[in-house]
Amino acid sequence: MAIINGGFEDGDFTGWTHSSDNWQVTTDAARSGTYGAQATPEGYDTWSLYQTIDITGYNTSLDGYFNIPSYTISNNGYIEITISLYTTDWSLIATIFSDVYTESNLPEEGWVHINYDTSLLSGEVILRIYIHSTDGGAY
Ligand SMILES: [Ca+2]
């Protein structure tokens, strides 16, 4: 199957497993469609969002966007965003994206485009989005 509710257009986290209550599906976080997933951590927080997908024959790439509003990082805080693929028993297959943002290196263009070629992969994999923050938010 392809990703379920990949753009969060169900208006909730249907299809996804997520930790922490400081994350919501909101209209404010939408890049396309009506909804997007938004993180509003309070202080030191981590969050992971994941779902198991069978990428055989369906996706030739994984594609997505995230954004970090400039007001969300303060007091020398940082936000780490890591997007990874795992086997179904949580062995790391690949790190699609990983970076740490502070007040001084926020994405200049706003939305950051993530695209990862999965044409050489097959079978079930876990797509995980992990965010660690001292004090900030992202969507
Ligand atoms: Ca959306």
Would you mind describing this structure in some detail?
With 139 residues, the chain is mostly beta strands. It has one domain: Jelly Rolls (Sandwich). The chain is 0% helix and 43% strand. The chain has no helices and nine strands. The chain has strands at residues 17-18, 23-26, 36-39, 45-54, 61-66, 79-86, 92-101, 112-117, 124-133. The strands form three sheets. Strands 1-4-9-6-7 form a five-stranded antiparallel beta sheet, with no helix packed on it. A hairpin with a 5-residue loop joins strand 6 (79-86) and strand 7. It is globular and about 45 Å long. Residues 7-9, 30, 32-33, 35-36 line the site of calcium ion. Calcium ion (CA) binds next to loops.
Mind telling me the C-alpha Rg?
A: 15 Å
Number of helices: 0
* Count of individual domains: 1
List segments where confidence is low: pLDDT < 50 over at least 5 consecutive residues: none
Overall mean pLDDT: 87
Overall geometry:
globular
Rounded to the nearest angstrom, the distance between the terminal CA atoms is 25 Å
Topology-level CATH name: Jelly Rolls
Hetero compounds: calcium ion
Order of helices and strands: EEEEEEEEE
Quaternary class: single chain
What is the annotated CATH architecture? Answer: Sandwich
Text of the CATH class:
Mainly Beta
What's the main sheet like? 5 strands, antiparallel
User: What proportion of the residues form beta strands (DSSP E)?
Assistant: 35-45%
Sheet with most strands: strand arrangement: 1-4-9-6-7
Structural class: mainly beta
Number of strands: 9
The residue fraction in helices comes out at under 10%
